[in-house]
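ingest -> validate -> predict -> emit
validate: passed (alphabet ok, no gaps, 86 aa)
predict: started
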Amino acid sequence: MSTSGTGREETLRPFLDFLDGESVLPETLVAAGRKLAEGLVDSGYPVFLCGDGPWQGVWVLDRLTDVQAITWGLWVATRVLRRSAS
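emit:
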């Protein structure tokens, strides 16, 4: 994955580990998902529009529930893995 040096790999690591079958505490996934969303909010993108899977619709990233934060992080991680495999 070509995300080293950007902090994204560190933020995505709990999700990548989880997707690899490793045990990851739910609170670690929640924190990482919120950090991913926070990065977009801080960059001026507080709302995310998506037409893909469980994220279809409009999402206000600074108001994610814990479950949504985990789902968001897993969604982002799968997109990164898909792009890396291409």
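The beta strands are 47-50, 57-60.
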